[in-house]
């Protein structure tokens, strides 16, 4: 006879109890904090209105990558450029976990986590970081600008 799926699980795999799962699903987020960080887009998910980004400066919780950053439907994700430097304005929402759940996660999963975060993109600006290095001299510095037309 074949093995049942439940028998094939490793004994070390532990499922969250219902009370812990319910607390995580129903966490109440507090007041928002808005921060600005520079970084670049790793991936876009147009159908879900989400992006993954890498930041040069860490967030308050020390992370430098945000996966699944919510993008307002008023923005056109199709216009976003992967790998280009942006300044991101991000809303951060923090939901604290109960002491019971914090201790449970630490004891059973060696996970030091006391809050859940949600992130929303509020605005982004494409930064012109290469202009100092690769841009040609301004026309006014080369003359009156008519020389190129005379050739």
Task: List the defining traits of the structure above.
151 residues, alpha+beta, OB fold (Dihydrolipoamide Acetyltransferase, E2P), five-stranded antiparallel β-sheet, disordered N terminus, 33% strand, 21% helix
Describe the protein in words.
By secondary structure, this protein is of the alpha+beta class. The chain has a domain at 28-129: OB fold (Dihydrolipoamide Acetyltransferase, E2P). The chain is elongated, with a radius of gyration of 24 Å. Helix content is 21%, strand content 33%.
Task: Outline the low-pLDDT stretches.
Answer: 1-11, 131-145
SSE arrangement, N to C: HEEEEHEHHH
How many DSSP E strands?
Answer: 5
Query: Mind telling me which CATH architecture of the domain at 28-129 this is?
Result: Beta Barrel
Structural class by SSE content:
alpha+beta
**CATH topology assignment of the domain at 28-129:** OB fold (Dihydrolipoamide Acetyltransferase, E2P)
Largest sheet: 5 strands, antiparallel
User: Beta-strand level of the residues, as a percent range?
Assistant: 25-35%
The backbone outline, from C-alpha atoms, is elongated
- Helix count, per DSSP? 5
On the 0-100 scale, what is the average pLDDT? 83
Q: Tell me the radius of gyration.
A: 24 Å
Annotate the secondary structure layout.
Blueprint: H1 18-25, E1 32-45, E2 50-55, E3 65-70, E4 85-96, H2 99-109, E5 115-126, H3 131-134, H4 139-142, H5 147-150
Antiparallel strand pairs: 1-2, 1-4, 2-3, 4-5
Brief summary of the model shown:
This protein is α+β, with helices and mostly antiparallel strands and 151 residues long.
